[in-house]
Specification:
Number of domains: 2
Largest sheet: 6 strands, parallel
Order of helices and strands: EEHHHHEHEHEHHEHEEH
Strand order of the largest sheet: 5-4-1-6-7-8
Strand content: 5-15%
CATH superfamily of the largest domain: HAD superfamily/HAD-like
CATH class of the largest domain: Alpha Beta
CATH topology of the largest domain: Rossmann fold
CATH architecture of the largest domain: 3-Layer(aba) Sandwich
Length: about 240
C-alpha cells in the first residue's frame, strides 16, 4: 500500500552531505600551511582517538556540561595534533580555530549525488521537511552554504535540542514542531541504529540509505532500503 506520508525528516552527514576528503587530509593541509609535515593517515588515526575520547567524556558536544561546541571541537583538534606529535600551543590554537571555521563551509562539505534533485522533488510533491541530525549548531550555516537550507521547515541538531539520536526525544520534537502524527512521517538516514531503528521506535517509518556492499541488517525490508537517494520517491509511491 502507498504510504500516506506528510512529513519527511532527514539525517545530514553521509545522507545529504559528505566530507570532500578524509579528516586527516584536511588537518594535514592545515598543518602544511604552518610549515608542519604530518602524515594524513596518522592524523586520521589520532582524530578518531581524540574524537572518541571527547565524545565519551563530554557527550553531545559537552552540552549540559558547560562546554560550547566550538570549545569542544577546538579541544578535539588540538588533541588530534598532540597525539601526532605537534605540541606548540600558539600553532595548535591557530590551526584549531581555522579548522573549526573551515568545517562550516563548502570548503569541506559536498552534496551527495541525487540529494538536490530528491529534496526538490519531495518539496514539489508537497511533503513537509525537516532535519534531525547529531550535529552542532553550525549545521544551519553548513546547509545554507551548500544551498540546501531552503528545503526545510526546521533544522533540529542534537546540540540545540539537547538530545542525540537514537534518543526518541529529538524525533518527538520534530513531530511536535510539524504537528504530524508519527505514522504519517518518515525519517531518511544512513545509520541503522540512530536513524532507521530510532525512527521506528517512535512510530515513524524509516528509510535506510545503504550503498552497495555495506552490511545487511536483516530487519530492514527491501522496500525500506535506498541504494541511492534517487530511489526514495518510487519507494514512497509504491
Amino acid at each position: 500500500a502507498m504510504l500516506r506520508l506528510r512529513l519527511l525528516t532527514w539525517d545530514v552527514k553521509d545522507t545529504l552531505l559528505r566530507l570532500r576528503q578524509p579528516v586527516g587530509e584536511s588537518y594535514a593541509a592545515e598543518a602544511r600551511a604552518h610549515g608542519l609535515r604530518v602524515q594524513p593517515e596518522a592524523l586520521g588515526q589520532s582524530f578518531r582517538e581524540a574524537y572518541g575520547a571527547q565524545s565519551r567524556r563530554f557527550p553531545n558536544y559537552g552540552r549540559g556540561q558547560g562546554l560550547s561546541s566550538q570549545q569542544w571541537w577546538v579541544d578535539v583538534v588540538k588533541q588530534t595534533f598532540r597525539l601526532s606529535g605537534v605540541h606548540e600551543d600558539g600553532i595548535l590554537t591557530l590551526m584549531a580555530e581555522n579548522l573549526y571555521r573551515d568545517f562550516c563551509s563548502t570548503h569541506n562539505w559536498e552534496v551527495l549525488p541525487g540529494a538536490r534533485e530528491t529534496l526538490s522533488r519531495c518539496c514539489q510533491r508537497g511533503f513537509r521537511m525537516g532535519v534531525v541530525s547529531n550535529f552542532d549548531t553550525r549545521l544551519e550555516n553548513v546547509l545554507s552554504q551548500c544551498n540546501l537550507r531552503h528545503h526545510f521547515e526546521f533544522v533540529l541538531t542534537s546540540e540545540d535540542t539537547g538530545f542525540a539520536k537514537p534518543d526518541r526525544r529529538i524525533f518527538e520534537k520534530a513531530l511536535r514542531l510539524s504537528g504530524v502524527a508519527p505514522e504519517q512521517a518518515a525519517h531518511v538516514g544512513d545509520d541503522y541504529t540512530r536513524d532507521y531503528r530510532a525512527a521506528q521506535a517512535v512510530g515513524m517509518h524509516g528509510f535506510l540509505l545503504r550503498a552497495a556492499g555495506q552490511g545487511e541488517e536483516p530487519e530492514v525490508p527491501r522496500e525500506r532500503v535506498l541504494p541511492t537517494l534517487s530511489h526514495l520517491l518510487s519507494l514512497i509511491e509504491k
